[in-house]
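Reopening this ticket.

The earlier resolution said the output was attached, but the attachment link was broken on my side. Pasting everything inline this time so it's all in one place.
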Amino acid sequence: MTEVKQLTESLIAYMQKLEIVFNKGEKPTHNDHAFFEKVRTEINPIYDMVEAWEEKTSYLIQQRKVDLHPKQVDATVKSIKAIALHSYYLDVRKRRYQDIKKSVEYVLQLLLKELSS
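Inline output:
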């Protein structure tokens, strides 16, 4: 359970970093291969972390150690991956970005609360 807590806290920190990237507003030029490589190297660790988080959190749900629904975990994983891409490619409006981010943060904070009790 401590590993899930650490992963959750790391994901929260990554979400804050991604928001900073989004707010900088650096749009890529068309077919910018260097930008694509930069994004790929920065996003891959997040994707790996999200997949580990999903696996370990799903296990805790199956063992009934946390009171979350599996669909919440699935939706959160998809949203984190979407946020990661939207942060760099700026292909979504700010309000939509914030809505996705808030839903992710809600589930992550809820999980932290469950793990603390």
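Reporter confirms the inline version is readable. The mean pLDDT is 93. DSSP finds four helices and no strands in the chain.
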